[in-house]
Amino acid sequence: MHRPVKTVARILALFVLCLLTGELSLRAAGALWASARPFVAHHRVTDERLGWRLNPAYTDVDEWCFRNTVVPEHADIVILGDSQTYGYGVAPEKNWPRQLSALIGRSTYNIACSGYSPVHGLALWTDVSSLTPRFVVAAIYAGNDLYDTFNLVYGHGQLAHLRSTESALQTAIATLEAARPLAEQARLVTRMGRTPWPLRDLLRNHSALFHFVRQLDGGSTALTAGPESSWRATRKRAEQHPDYLHAHDGGAGLRTTLTIAKRLLPMDTSDPRIDEGLRMTLRGVREMSRRSAAIGARFLVLWIPTKELVFAPLVPTESMPSFRRLIEIETDLRRQVLKTAVDLDVSFVDALPALRRSLQEGEEPYPDTADGHPTEIGYTRIAGVVAGALAGRWESPGL
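Now predict its structure.
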């Protein structure tokens, strides 16, 4: 009995030693070679005010921890947004702010990060104003910005002046957060109902080996799976998780995976917390407009729709009441943001028509997976819409 136990113990000890050796080796590689850092480090680092920022160890992140080549002394356009503006899924030069700069020959500075909303820009306004921009663009993404604004104010204790002063609402929010924290609900729906694994989060946040293995896994899939085999795998995954995924097949260029539950939770204003997120977002837009005017900059609101709203005219909804509800809610959100922009007498730029035209023309503004971020084509369409809104307005007295 003792010999097998010793053998198992030695194997376990050797395994742990190998893991530690791999971890230390990868950390050393990341420290020595900049090109190795994206393979071994989390793309975000902890920030006391905002929760997190981008990791400046990455080659595409500047010293202010945003996705720009450098921090300039001046930028013609400062853009505030989330991962849709950061440019998730494409190379830095292919995100829409960088494409916008190339289109109009004006400098842009991109203050965007996954998990942010444009309201985060208020917490960074000193940085915004120091760049003396001619334009400030608040890019509102319908899919999760209300939740992200709520998380900034209530989760990270920032911009408390945006909170409602109604005691009944504050009591309702506190009660809901104590019973079912919104962050946990969002995490659960993102994981398609699977219980979170704390060890995985620990490894994701701190282990170089964990990130290296994830990179290898993603890379191998990309290398071995062709478009059709990838789509078959995507459809199979949707069949396995019908409460969270819906594979829409309208032919090449018109097929994608809709994430109805994931999009509905963070924009459903029947939840007082999301409704408060909407009110704070609109208050934030008003305040950004006032602050922009105070520094001599013109303010512009960009509406970035969800993939679900872009595909809505192509998707049969007879047996999908949750999808119909999602579209109704997002359409109403767009109406309220538009009304706020009109009340402020600032430009409202809507990316929805251009993204839908992309589908009509047989292009692919979104991947066929469950990823809700645009493809390079989608980002190009957004850049074109903003470029059109700015054309010829650099010398005009107002928008």
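The two ends are 82 Å apart (CA to CA).
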